[in-house]
C-alpha cells in the first residue's frame, strides 16, 4: 500500500509547526519557570529567617527567665543564710548580717530589714546604707546613660516601690528636669508603680510634671495617664 503524499506533507507541516512553537516558547517557558522557582526560593528564605528570628526571640526570653529564676534562688538563699543572725540577740552577728544583706540584695533590703532593726543599736548602720543606696539609684535613674537608667528603674521597681523615702527622693528629682527628658519619664514610671505617692506640694508638682509629658509611645502614655489619675 502506497502512502498518501498529501498526508505526509500535512504531517510534516504539523511537526514543523510544533517544533517552531517549542523553539519560540522554550525561552519564555524557562523564564516563567525561573520566576516561579525564584519566588518560591525567596519565600522559603524569608520563612527560614522568620523562623530563626522567632527561635532567637524565644531563646532570649527563656534565657532571661532562667536568669531571673536563678537570681531569685540566690536571693532566697541569702535571706535563709542570714535570717537567724538578723533575728537573733547577738548584736555583733546582726550587724554583720545587716551589712551582708545590704551588699548582696540591696534592692530587697528595705522590706527585709523593716522591723528587724527597730530599737537595735545597728539601726543607724542599716539606715545609712539604705540612704546611700537610695542616692545611687536616684543618680542612676537620671543618668544620661540609657543602660544606667534602665538598671536603676529595674531595681526601683523590684524592691523600692514601698519605700516612702525613695518615692520622695525620686519625686523631688523629677521636678527639677524637663518633663520629656528620659530620666523624668522613667521617674514617673517608677512613681506610677509605687505603693504610695508624695503628698502636699511635692504631689502637686509631680502632677504638673506628668501633665507636661508629650509624644511618648502608647504604653508610656498610658502609664503617665494612670499616674495623673492617682495624683489628682
Descriptors:
mainly alpha; single chain; 2 domains; 9 helices; elongated; 232 residues
Whole-number count of domains: 2
N-end to C-end Cα span: 112 Å
Question: What's the rounded overall pLDDT mean?
Answer: 75
Q: How would you sum up the major sheet?
A: none
> Can you tell me the overall shape?
elongated
Radius of gyration: 35 Å
Structural class: mainly alpha
Low-confidence runs:
none
| SSE pattern | HHHHHHHHH
Strand content: under 5%
What's the total helix number?
9
Q: Helical proportion?
A: over 70%
What's the β-strand tally?
0
Q: Could you characterize the architecture of this molecule?
A:
The structure is a single chain. The chain is mainly alpha-helical and 232 residues long. The chain folds into two domains: 10-68; 123-232. It has nine helices and no strands. It has helices spanning 5-87, 91-104, 109-113, 123-141, 146-159, 164-174, 182-193, 200-211, 218-231. α5 runs parallel beside α7, α6 crosses α8 and α8 (200-211) runs antiparallel to α9 (218-231). The longest helix is centred in the first third of the chain and has 83 residues, at 5-87. The chain is elongated, with a radius of gyration of 35 Å. The N and C termini lie far apart (112 Å). The mean pLDDT is 75.
Concise synopsis of the structure shown:
The protein has 9 helices and no strands. The protein is mainly α and 232 residues long. It has 2 domains: 10-68; 123-232.
How is this fold's topology laid out?
Elements: H1 5-87, H2 91-104, H3 109-113, H4 123-141, H5 146-159, H6 164-174, H7 182-193, H8 200-211, H9 218-231
Amino acid at each position: 500500500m502506497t502512502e498518501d503524499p498529501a498526508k505526509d506533507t500535512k504531517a510534516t507541516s504539523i511537526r514543523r509547526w510544533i517544533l517552531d512553537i517549542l523553539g519560540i516558547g522554550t525561552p519564555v517557558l524557562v523564564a516563567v519557570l525561573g520566576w516561579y522557582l525564584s519566588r518560591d526560593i525567596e519565600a522559603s528564605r524569608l520563612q527560614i529567617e522568620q523562623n530563626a528570628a522567632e527561635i532567637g526571640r524565644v531563646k532570649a526570653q527563656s534565657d532571661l527567665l532562667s536568669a531571673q529564676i536563678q537570681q531569685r534562688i540566690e536571693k532566697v538563699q541569702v535571706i535563709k543564710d542570714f535570717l537567724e543572725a538578723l533575728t537573733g540577740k547577738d548584736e555583733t552577728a546582726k550587724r554583720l548580717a545587716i551589712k551582708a544583706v545590704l551588699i548582696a540584695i540591696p534592692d530587697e533590703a528595705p522590706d527585709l530589714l523593716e522591723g528587724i532593726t527597730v530599737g537595735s543599736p545597728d539601726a543607724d548602720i542599716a539606715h545609712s546604707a539604705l540612704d546611700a543606696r537610695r542616692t545611687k539609684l536616684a543618680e542612676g535613674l537620671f543618668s544620661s546613660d540609657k543602660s544606667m537608667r534602665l538598671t536603676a528603674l529595674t531595681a526601683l521597681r523590684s524592691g523600692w516601690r514601698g519605700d516612702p523615702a525613695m518615692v520622695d527622693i525620686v519625686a523631688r528629682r523629677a521636678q527639677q528636669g524637663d518633663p520629656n527628658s528620659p530620666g523624668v519619664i522613667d521617674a514617673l514610671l517608677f512613681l506610677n508603680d509605687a505603693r504610695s505617692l508624695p503628698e502636699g506640694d511635692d504631689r502637686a508638682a509631680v502632677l504638673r510634671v506628668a501633665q507636661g509629658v508629650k509624644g511618648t509611645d502608647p504604653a508610656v502614655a498610658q502609664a503617665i495617664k494612670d499616674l495623673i489619675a492617682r495624683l489628682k
